[in-house]
Amino acid sequence: MKAMMLKMSVMALAVMTMVGCASNSENAGPSDEDQVMAVAQAVADALKAADVDAMVSHFSDDFSNDEGASKEATTTALKGYAAGGFLDDLDVDLSSMKVKVEGEKATAAPVDLEGGFGAISLDFDLEKRDGKWLVVYMSQY
User: What pTM value is reported for the model?
Assistant: First the structure.
């Protein structure tokens, strides 16, 4: 009888532990992959709206692009493109984008753009800093 009670107690404890783990994972918030996807989506939405300030708000202070331009220089260039109408009617496509997370670093690529200037793709490198994913590097091709 004692052995049966012990088995039932152990089983009950195991079930409670599994339920507790399941409920904790549900409340843990979005995964890193989902957070990186959300940043890429926010950058894409801002670019489509020609809202350069909103776009670069997701860039780290030490951001650079494949031409060596800083966050400030990239902001200036993008504002010039927006003023010149190059971001008007921009089509932004994330359907081919893949997100890869390795620890505190991630990539999101490609983000395909098409507009009056033609078509290009962007690749983002991101880092998690103080719990927030930020774009630290962007290349285009």
Answer: 0.80
